[in-house]
Design a protein that fits this description.
Blueprint lengths: L3 H28 L4 H53 L1
Length: 89
């Protein structure tokens, strides 16, 4: 079973890979002579990677929000338990 933290780590790795590949594609487009077909293939791959990157960043943002909410709830429960322990001891 995956935890929120492992999902966040996996998405961060995926985002990093997409960013690296986008850098490579941009360098290739600028520095190499290509045919029109090769250039259009790279444009399609770049477009797909950019969309994947946007989707992964949205998922990452929502997972981080969920992780933050869980942490806040845990701290609140711990505070209530501590306050109860202090009252009765």
């Amino acid at each position: 079973m995956k935890t929120v933290v492992t999902e966040i780590e996996d998405l961060e790795k995926s985002v990093a890979k997409c960013e690296e590949r986008l850098d490579v594609i941009e360098r290739l487009q600028r520095l190499t002579m290509m045919t029109h077909e090769e250039r259009s293939e790279l444009k399609q791959e770049k477009k797909l990677l950019e969309q994947t990157l946007v989707d992964n960043r949205k998922k990452l943002k929502s997972l981080r929000w969920e992780n933050g909410k869980s942490m806040i709830i845990s701290v609140m429960i711990l505070g209530v338990l501590y306050a109860g322990w202090m009252m009765y001891s």
